[in-house]
Write a structure and sequence with these properties.
about 190 residues; alpha/beta; Rossmann fold; 8 helices; 7 strands
């Protein structure tokens, strides 16, 4: 693995920071974290609340390793690392936080979310596109990204290459997302 964190693959989870526990997406993130841990993979995320907390909790409860990449900028805004993070990596800015998270990930899963999640997807993809990181799985889980990127890909037309389009792996369920990651990790 290129992540420098040992032989266990690191799977980054991106998703909504404001996500209440009663929402189906929270339960999905919880289940995703558990699935990642049961595969023996390390879960990494932005370390705060919402989908990040749910995925971290799912991984921790399944006996997995959890890493949260946090930053001074968000801490000054009143955010704190969630209680399920076992290893915290601190960075001064949100930009450095995202760079660290993307560079350590052998794969990423983006759950439904907003501007922050969209920026994580775009940055991950642009790092692959420019060769800053080697190609790796980028799974988009949920309806928000399927609809958003279907429209984007159609509208962008020939601004996107076939390689650009193939970066995005759309999965309808946790099982298909985990299988897609497993398949790509074993073939790269």
């Amino acid at each position: 693995m290129e992540n420098g964190l040992g032989s266990r693959p690191v799977v980054a989870v991106f998703g909504a920071a404001r996500l209440a526990p009663e929402r189906p997406a929270f339960r999905m993130a919880l289940a995703l974290g558990g699935a990642i841990a049961r595969r023996g993979w390390t879960l990494a995320c932005g370390g705060y609340g919402g989908a990040m907390e749910a995925a971290s909790r799912g991984a921790a409860e399944a006996g997995g390793r959890t890493i949260g990449v946090t930053c001074d900028t968000l801490d000054r805004a009143g955010r704190r690392a969630n209680p399920w993070i076992r290893e915290e990596i601190r960075r001064p800015t949100a930009r450095e936080r995202l760079m660290t998270l993307v560079r350590m990930a052998d794969a990423a899963v983006a759950m439904d979310g907003g501007i922050g999640t969209l920026s994580e997807i775009a940055f991950f993809a642009s790092q692959i596109q420019t060769g800053e990181i080697s190609p790796r799985p980028l799974v988009l889980l949920g309806n928000v990204w399927r609809n958003t990127f279907a429209s984007f890909i159609k509208s962008a037309g020939d601004y996107l290459t076939d390689a650009d389009r193939s970066m995005f792996i759309f999965c309808p369920s946790i099982d298909t997302a985990v299988a897609a990651i497993q398949n790509r990790l074993t073939t790269t």
